[in-house]
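Trying the structure run again after the queue cleared.
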Amino acid sequence: MLAGYATRIAAAPTEGDRLRLQKEAARKWLRATNVLRPPGGGDWPRTLDAHAAQCLRQHPDQAARVAFFLAEAQSPSASGAAFTQRVAQAAAWLSACVDEQVGGLTLR
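Done. Tokens:
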């Protein structure tokens, strides 16, 4: 899903299109962090700030990353290349976290 955004950002015909796509991708990444919520972790966050706060409770070491995506979700300003690099890294981190969580589960 986020890789598709990287492709679309790189091919965006106008700066306005690119910034809109970056805003969308930043919001998607913040919402996707909900998969890291522990079992019984409460209600689904209603705002991007709530998603960010929930992520930071579990992963305070990701403060800079979360702050970047919150800023881009509100007022995107990063270059397309910088954004796509950061979103790829963020997606890989999120995927690794999910793999780590799932690794402890057994399916029957």
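The helical segments are 2-10, 15-32, 48-58, 63-74, 80-103. Worth checking whether this holds up in the mutant runs.
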